[in-house]
Structure prediction request, 429 residues.
Amino acid sequence: MSKFTGYKNTFHILMKTSKLFKTLLFTLSLTLFFTGCKDAKTEEDPNKPKPVQVYQKDGVTVNAYDFAGLEYFLNRDDNTTYVVNFWATWCVPCVEEMPYFEKLGEEYKDDNVKVLLVSLDMPKMVESKLLPFIKDNDIKSEVVLLRDPDANSWISKISPSWSGAIPATVIYKKDKKSFYEQSFDYEQLVSALDSIK
Amino acid sequence: MKRTQILGLFAVASILIANVSCKSEGSKADEKKEGVEAVDSTGVASDMSETEVRSGYKVGDIATDFSLKNIDEKNVSLKDMEDAKGYIVIFTCNHCPYAQAYEERIVALDKKYKDQGYPVVAINPNNPEKAKDDSFEKMQERASEKGFTFPYLLDEGQKIYPQYGATKTPHVYILEKTGEGNVVRYIGAIDDNYEDASAVTKKYVEDAVDALLAGKEVPVKETKAIGCSIKA
Prediction:
């Protein structure tokens, strides 16, 4: 008698013994089948950090993170290519290149590419400048605020070659990463993306 | 009988599926966590080993002198300040909010250290054609509004900042006057909090000048800060 038949027989006997047991088992299995993974499936990513502050105005919401929180967004390990642009509303070249980042996010949205705009606006300017900027320009990419004034402690962690000037951009997918301390036009941005993606 | 068997098998199968799929979710999450940590640690490692490819001065280099137009329309050179033991050269400008956040602190630095032999020399590296608020006239206005006590020079033609390797405003170079020339002793930020002067815990520039005045080694020789890219 093979092992499998053995199990099958035992099973048979169990099944025969109690109708109540059968019903219980069936209900239990159904419950498990539909709810067993609930925790794992509904919580998108348990590692996602909590913002240090949430700014809201006129339907625009921006989460603020310190560097420890922002690191999550710089180290996501999925099949998406992330284009992370460091900018501020007062930074003229940043604002000039923003349409290209928006266009990139739109054109490549079905291609596992996500654009994240990390604002370095000062906290006192968030409500007066940043939130209205996002609303007025109808910014579609996700915007977060990096609120961590001890910049010397984190600039080199983003890239050892970054002097701290903005605009600056990180493009990464899993462990592959490029850093640019420069302004982009759309073609340059696409070729930078292609070199990673 | 047969129905019971099928039902039973289905029950067992669904329990198994539920368990297996939960397990794989769990292990995926674990992998993810490990992945993040691994990236972190390599990030730190590359921090140490990767050499910076940047032009401009490094600590220990001899910095060039210059002759640039001050807001009083007279040219200023480092060598003109004969009593100086060194200089706090700060690339800064009018329009940049980070530079603006430091204006009062720069004035305070000059007041504190000029008499001790380390005057502030501010240089606007931006091309006024590209940054209208950084024109010579606007520099004059800003300096008088903010009560600048130090020379505020225009890097006309944008020739000096690239030699120093400044990339942004504000960007500080502390020079020590020696027999061999003006030696770069510190490059970087003024302190560790652009947002709030009262929350500063590390005064990099003050610590460096204090050390130089005491004949000691500068404790932190290089720092980084967020700033506005220089508009050339």
